[in-house]
Amino acid sequence: xNRLTIRILKxxxxxxxxxTASFGAFAGGEGALYGPxxxxxxxFVRAYNAGSSELNVAVGNATLNDVSPLGSxxxxxxxxxxxxxxxxxxxxxxxxxxxxxxxxxSQPGGQPRLVPEPPFKNKQKALVRVQNxxxxxxxxxxADGKTDVVANVAPQSHGDREINPVKVxxxxxxxxxxxxxxxxxxxxxxxxxxxxxxxEGGKLNPVWVKRPVKVD
Length: 216
Prior knowledge:
Blueprint: H1 3-34, E1 42-49, E2 55-59, E3 62-67, E4 71-72, E5 76-79, E6 81-87, E7 90-96, E8 101-106, E9 113-116, E10 126-132, E11 138-142, E12 148-153, E13 157-163, E14 166-168, E15 170-174, E16 177-181, E17 185-187, E18 192-198, E19 205-209
């Protein structure tokens, strides 16, 4: 076997190996990149910590540890069903439906809440969601107050608005009264960005909640 033949065989073997590796990567899909995929019919849950100290949450086989103050975890999946969620030192009975998303919210001085998060499937736009856990109706507007973004969100409910990807400055209003200016937020395609509003009266605490950025 001459040197030319050997080089050709080695090149063919390398091409075959690369082809096999590429096929494996595509065949694995996102599971190959981000870990095991959720079985069909799973429920998804994350934690939002509205308190001032780190929070640990456990529900079924999902653990969400060291959630920073005014921060959130990413979603974890678990079988749908009924559980007792442990949110810090408090317990909360919860029922999780299949293919549904939820946020477990820890509120200072109050009971934890299980908040449904309707899924968003538009990959071309972003979704702004206001989760109003306060006792008053609120409106999300542009920072100058001239344009409603998510209007008249009733107490203990949520409101949504699909918008084009953009970096924006927004503010929270109670009628014509500005409650709070908000930190600038960048909205990406296919992303849900939630404004969680906790507290009551003159002590409302609005915080943007996004999925944490994955770090390799």
